[in-house]
């Protein structure tokens, strides 16, 4: 999703224009949350990032589009996109005067099972038109956009989930390991995780590949970067070494390498782009 929205989710910065709606109890093992964000009128182009939770991002109307730029490649997506995996140097430009987006944030294993996808799908399709997925699983995007209120949209998604006979349980050990990584905010290594969480590396690697679609190292790296990004975006003075060290990087060069990989820009270039 746009990283500026993900930043608000991580910080819990919600208000009347940007807010979260909790799923009902019967949906809470599948959906982490429903989110409504008002688009920044000053900026039509946003960096896309994922912290391990797959998302569906719905525009306001069925005919609205975004242009996705990945490096030198660009393509257009209509109405709604899905994104997950390790997203690098991908930007979305809104092509219409969109005021608001509606985002559904899923638990990874539940998302892949719900939509009949292999967990490795997003390794090669980190951001994709949802119509490519929906046509195979009887989710009518056109009918979704006949819903006008947020309540109707949530009810539509909820009805689809309830009517999908999908097992969404994950290993309790994997869930605890993920919670442990989130608690560390990516400050650690795979070895730290295997030792402190008491799991075998081969089991961890297989479980992540099957249920998350990422290697443990990649997942940890996403957590580390998003928290470093949040600190950078909220800093009045840019001290890359301080930000790097406080977020588990060995030094500022390692942070710079990650930053350039995920954004295509240096931190200073990116901050200037955002202004």
TrEMBL record:
Domain named HTH araC/xylS-type: residues: 175-273
Record GO terms (molecular function): DNA-binding transcription factor activity; sequence-specific DNA binding
Keywords, alphabetical: DNA-binding, Transcription, Transcription regulation
Protein origin, superkingdom: Bacteria
Protein name, per record: HTH araC/xylS-type domain-containing protein
InterPro entries: AraC_XylS_family_regulators (IPR050204), DUF6597 (IPR046532), Homeodomain-like_sf (IPR009057), HTH_AraC (IPR018060)
């Amino acid at each position: 999703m746009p990283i500026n929205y993900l930043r608000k989710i991580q910080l819990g910065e919600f208000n009347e224009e940007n807010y979260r709606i909790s799923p009902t109890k019967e949906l809470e093992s599948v959906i982490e949350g429903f989110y409504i964000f008002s688009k920044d009128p000053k900026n039509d182009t946003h960096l896309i990032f994922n912290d391990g939770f797959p998302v569906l991002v719905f525009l306001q109307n069925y005919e609205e589009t975004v242009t996705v730029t990945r490096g030198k490649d660009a393509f257009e997506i209509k109405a709604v996109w899905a994104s997950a995996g390790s997203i690098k140097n991908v930007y979305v430009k809104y092509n219409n005067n969109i005021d608001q987006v509606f985002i559904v944030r899923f638990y990874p294993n539940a998302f892949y099972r719900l939509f009949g996808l292999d967990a490795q799908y997003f390794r090669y399709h980190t951001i994709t038109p949802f119509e490519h997925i929906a046509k195979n699983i009887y989710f009518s995007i056109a009918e979704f956009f006949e819903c006008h209120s947020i309540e109707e949209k949530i009810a539509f998604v909820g009805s689809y989930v309830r009517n999908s006979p999908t097992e969404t349980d994950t290993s309790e050990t994997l869930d605890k390991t993920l919670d442990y990584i989130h608690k560390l905010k990516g400050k650690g290594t795979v070895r730290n995780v295997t030792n402190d969480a008491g799991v075998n590396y081969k089991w961890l690697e297989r479980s992540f590949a099957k249920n998350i679609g990422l290697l443990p190292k990649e997942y940890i790296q996403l957590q580390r970067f998003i928290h470093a990004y949040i600190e950078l975006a909220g800093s009045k003075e840019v001290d890359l070494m301080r930000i790097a060290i406080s977020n588990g990087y060995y030094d500022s060069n390692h942070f710079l390498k990650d930053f350039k990989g995920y954004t295509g820009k240096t931190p200073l270039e990116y901050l200037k782009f955002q202004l």
